[in-house]
Amino acid sequence: MSENDGLLRITKEEVMSPHVDDLVKRQKSLRGESAGLVNKEKRIWFLQNWFVLMIAGLAGALLAWLIIEPMFEDMPYWRGTIESIEPGAAELESSGGIEVLGTIKVRGQKFLVVGETEETREGFLAGPLKLGQLKVGQEVGVYSQSAGDITVAVCIDMNPTRPQDPSLSLNELNARSTVAQFILFPMVAALIGLFIGAADGLVCRMPMRALISGGIGLIVGCLGGFVTYFLANMVYGVITAFAHKFTGDAVGGLSTTGFAFQVIGRAIGWALAGTTVGLGQGIALKSKRLFIYGLVGGVVGGLIGGLLFDPIGLLLIGGGKQAVVGDVSRGVGFGVIGATVGFMIGIVELLARDAWLKMIEGPLAGKEFLVFKDVMAIGSSPRSDIYLFNDDNVLDHHGTLRVVGEECEIESTSADRPVMVNNRPIRAARLRSGDQITLGRTSFLYMKRNR
User: Fold this and answer.
1) How many CB atoms within 10 Å of residue 436?
2) Do residues 432 and 446 lie in contact, with contact meaning Cβ atoms separated by under 8 Å?
3) Which member of 71, 242, 326, 419 lies 3.0 to 4.6 Å from 180 by CB, making a disulfide possible if both were Cys?
4) Distance (Å) of CA 390 to CA 208, 359, 370, 380, 393
5) How far is CA 395 from CA 155, 207, 391, 399, 417, in A?
């Protein structure tokens, strides 16, 4: 066949050339279709909201634990030398059917030793203690509980190593512990709310947003913590009272069923506390979507974290031992609750979001920006809803993103520096999932959830 037979011949090399790919993309762009750029997206896990909020919640909870733990006492601790031992104490033997072994006086403070008083070794309960094991002049550490004028030695450390501030009286220790228990919920909820509220602003280098959202998260979390403290105590008190009907040798004198009820009670309490910890950003940015995500994520995260609190403490102790104080397990438990609340807020957002922008070129490449309200400003001003820093080619207010019904549109604010959609300058354009949006040197992929 001659070369002049009138047929158009296209080689494989010509079909596969980059020039053809560019022409196809341009044709799709002119038709308003995705330009096939989805494959350029990067997945950077540490910029994902679920991870950022998880770390923020963990940090807030651990800070709350560090602040409150020095004041918190499971049982007020009193260390000193035994000054006297009085067997019998007949005048108290009829009190509540308690078997009274006698009283001891330690550093000026009297304690009632009862049949349920236990010995401790290296911070763990080691079985019932007999009054005959104690001697005048012996140094001991007493973990106590008070009811009116009666102070009971719940357990006694025969070889105490735990230090104590001698300037505080037992009444002052009791008062401090009561205050610590009262502010426990508000403190944890407030600091988790602060860190979760401020997290996105800090990542996006928007200090004013971080300050406002974090501050609102702190206040709402604190106020909500005080309210939920009473509700949680009521629920937890009723359920744990029921749990203690199931005695056994499984955990802390409870059977497996009793321990399960105790776990459920704590989970419900922390679910109540979680209702307010994720609301800061939604309130600050006046976004109903973020408010709902924070509410649902906080409740679910608090519930899951509460369910894990006791089992994790049990795993930390191990070997069937029961700790006298729960400082370490409490710290781990708070950390789990904070991390779970943050994680679940991020996951709820991930599952429920309708539209978002994913940065594929720019200082935060890989980060996803939720379309969280109907009109959003994009630009180099820190007041923008999406702040593009370190890009001299971006105007203070470079583009406006609008939600119109179930669709999303973007509009340029300047004809000199227009927004680019699929490499084409536009004045205004309706977006489709997979479209590339470019402002200066920063590029995003517009993504939309399939319905």
Assistant:
1) 24
2) yes
3) 71
4) 17, 14, 21, 8, 9
5) 69, 19, 9, 9, 8
Tens-digit pLDDT profile for residues 266-297? 899 899 989 999 999 899 988 999 999 999 99
Contacts of 158 (CB under 8 A, 6+ apart): 119, 120, 121, 133, 138, 140
Domains in the chain, CATH or no CATH each:
50-68+177-352 (no CATH), 77-167 (2.40.50), 354-448 (2.60.200.20)
Our measurement of the distance from residue 65's CA atom to the centroid of its chain's CA atoms, rounded to an integer in Å, reads 13
C-alpha 40/C-alpha 436 separation (Å) is: 10
User: Backbone phi, then psi, for 7, in 5-degree steps?
Assistant: -85, 145
pLDDT score of 94:
46
Q: What is the DSSP string of 16-69?
A: TSHHHHHHHHHHHHHTT---S-GGG----GGGSHHHHHHHHHHHHHHHHHHHHT
Which residues partner with 438 through β-bridges? 420, 443
Judge contact between 303 and 264, C-beta under 8 A: no
Tokens standing for residue 285:
């940015």
- Residues, the chain, total? 451
How far is it, in rounded angstroms, from Cα 200 to Cα 30? 36
Give the pLDDT band (50/70/90) at residue 93: very low
Q: How far apart are CA 88 and CA 438, in angstroms?
A: 85
Q: What local confidence, expressed as pLDDT, does residue 12 receive? A: 63
CA gap 248, 175 in Å, rounded: 33
Give the span between the Cα atoms of 451 and 445, in whole angstroms.
Answer: 19
Identify the burial level of 28 via C-beta atoms within 10 angstroms of its C-beta, where 0-12 means exposed, 13-18 middle and 19 or more buried: middle
Which pLDDT belongs to residue 312? 80
pLDDT of residue 146: 85
At 242, the amino acid letter reads: F
Taking phi over 0 as left and psi of -120 to 50 as alpha, with beta for the rest, 322 belongs to beta
